[in-house]
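Thread: Newbie trying to understand structure tokens

Hi all, I'm a second-year student working on a class project, and my supervisor (Dr. K.) asked me to get a predicted structure for one chain before our next meeting. I've only ever worked with sequences, so writing a 3D structure as a token string is new to me. If someone could post the tokens and maybe explain what I'm looking at, I'd be very grateful. Here's the chain:
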Amino acid sequence: MSRKTNIFAIYAWEDKNALLQIRQSLSALEANETINIWADDPILPGQEWKPKVASHMDFADVFLLFVSTDFMKSKFVQQLEFKNVIDKYKANDAVVIPILVDDCQWQIDFKSDEYDFNLNELQVLPNPKKPIENWTLPEDAFNAIETDLKKVIASVRGESVEEAPEVEEVVSEVAEIIPTKIVEDQLELSFFDEVDTNEDSIAAQNRDAEAERLLEEAAAKKRAAAEQEKAAAIAAEKQTIALEQQRIAAEKEVQRKAEEEKRILAEQEAQKKLEREQQVQAEAEKAAQLKAEQDKLKQEEQEAQQKAAAEKQKAEEAERIATIKAAEEERLFLEEEAQREAEEERRIIEQAEANAAYQEHEEDNEESIEEYEQEEDSTSSKKSLLVLAGVLLLGVAFYVFYDSDGDTKETAPVPPETNTEVVEDAMSTEDAEVSAEADEETNDETIQEESVAETPDETNVTVDNSNFMDLEVGDSYAGGIVFEIDKSNKTALVAQAKDAGPMSWKSAMKINEQLGEDWRLPTQDELKTMYNTIGKGGDNSGGFTEELYWSSTLYQKIQSRMVRFSDGNMSFHYSNVRESRKFLVRAIKKISA
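---
Reply by user tm_fold:
Sure, no problem. This is what the structure looks like when written as tokens:
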């Protein structure tokens, strides 16, 4: 069995009805697996044509070009694919058959570097090169195309086109032979009738028998022809059913063709139900629909252009606003940067002044401490005498009252014991309480509040930039808890996870010797920030107690400010020279990305 002949149909979307009619006329050849018809790739208006299966172009034996006005105006005739079809024709690798759908300008020369080509060189159908729409009955045009295409297919397959003799012709021949024979026999019978009656009777019987035999043979041939015709009709019907089943199976097997094949099937079924009068109306509707689609395409193009212009204008406006916003943000950033630099410069100056004052304080610290302690001792002595006198007076009064009662025994007054720790605590409490009135009285004698910086040139701990940008206040990071972040300058302050101490202020100033050179005692403002973020003023994720904490901020040369973490009170300040003054310490360090 020879292989199938592959037919590749190339048509414009508007000419799909002509394709369906041709395909229907060749359905018998397609059903008995003589041919394959590939028609899955219509040419769409204004779009470049590409085959869904590129290999079909290589294995096609016959190309059917449905030539129409839409076909000639399409981009396909300018594409490389069209030249490839003509190249196969020039190389005798394929047969190209143009089918004229409507009256269009199809006799056009196509020029290339290798050759010039005109469709007029090919076998143009329907013969004689008359478009389908110009035929009085389109069915006659399609019948003529079917006949010529079957001849072309037979030629491609190397088969001869033979027509079997019609049954009617055989019957007619028999009918002609029988009457002639009867007439001859009758003439012969009439001629010998007078000579010999018996012989004439026998001859007549023989002639009758021969005539009857001939009639029976003719009737048998006619019955056989009828049976063959009936069998052919049944076979054609079976082929039609098989073709439908094959088409449905192909649709299920090849998913990429599903939607297109369904559409073709629906149109094919609808086309079968149309009558001849409805076909004429369909052509008119087709023209109207084509014009409507063209108008719609033009309108859509105009709307698309208007939309593109509007979007372009909108984009330009957004770009202008973004430029203005970026310039404003840059200006604000530069202002903030200048402000931060000014504040940092001021802080450095203040730290330098505070350090200088602190160094000066260290030089004459012993003399100042001695004077201050003498003054405190004098004050403590006076307070102790006052307390002792008060206790004695209370004892005398109690004695007198007890003696006048007379119901109790007389006892000698016992001098009260002096608790030096209580007196010292009372003095500390008096030193610690700072009121607005005391501040006004000693305003001329106090030294302006100073902060002792950890070092003149602070060393920052450098961390991973990607991790730093994800930091939040309260996160555990770099051995502590983050309590302040400046993402613009990419710096942050980290507090030690646990309290240190209690310890004296001098020991607190050397906290870096215990924890590392990056750790230092915080200022009072930094302590306040800790209170508000990770202390009692916030979520207390730092685990602070309700006690006092040392700061590096000086109140006077020999006193340092503190923060009470039960309520964030910043009015406390204690002596920074007494080793007995011991409070909690929460060290901090600075990190940068």
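A couple of things are worth pointing out once you decode it. Residues 167-273 form one domain. The two ends are 81 Å apart (CA to CA). Feel free to ask follow-ups in this thread.
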